[in-house]
């Protein structure tokens, strides 16, 4: 559970139907693995949130929202001082959304709907929350998936390699070098990356590093220092990779974080 927040219930129970909650959370705050009978949207109005399941990790900066369908065991971690918003989606409405965890872009209308449904204002008229939730779901149904998903391995040989990289994302080792440590051949590991994780070794490591970069940037680390900490040889190559994966530059991402904090509801 989250710490006591400015709202009554930051981790909504299933009996609360669509009602959500909000809390200001410190950098690095985590929520242990748990399961909901209903669906759940988690939105970082400021900061960044990651959602981890057995299928991997999804990361959502302030311009994205995470979706976890019913029945998926999941955990959360928050980066930067985060205005965390949690919204329960009743199980009868979950069929409108994807059947697997994901991340979606947040436009102005979706953002305002999420903030209103997780705020502390009373329902203005009977049924108003339900109608607004329908708008939120319609927006999500028409929004492209922007997953920033880092899948996880099940094969022991591949898992040994990904564990090494999780422990040190900046590690410059080649796949052949990592394979020698893990006791597997480069060709076998390359095949496993594509068959199990749906991407090559270099792509997987880039997304892993971007996940760590998002956390560092949310905590106020400079772009240059983040590039070095996450394994890039120079800031320009980091900026190019970050823009390709996230859709904006690291500087723009940090500016958005500052703007969202400045306009956040106290």
UniProtKB/TrEMBL annotation:
PANTHER family: HTH-TYPE TRANSCRIPTIONAL REGULATOR NIMR
Protein name: Helix-turn-helix transcriptional regulator
Short name of any one Pfam family annotated for the protein: HTH_18
SMART domains in UniProt: HTH_ARAC (SM00342)
Disordered: annotated segments: 1-22
Record carries keyword Transcription: yes
Ranges for domain HTH araC/xylS-type: 159-256
Keyword terms of this UniProt record: DNA-binding, Transcription, Transcription regulation
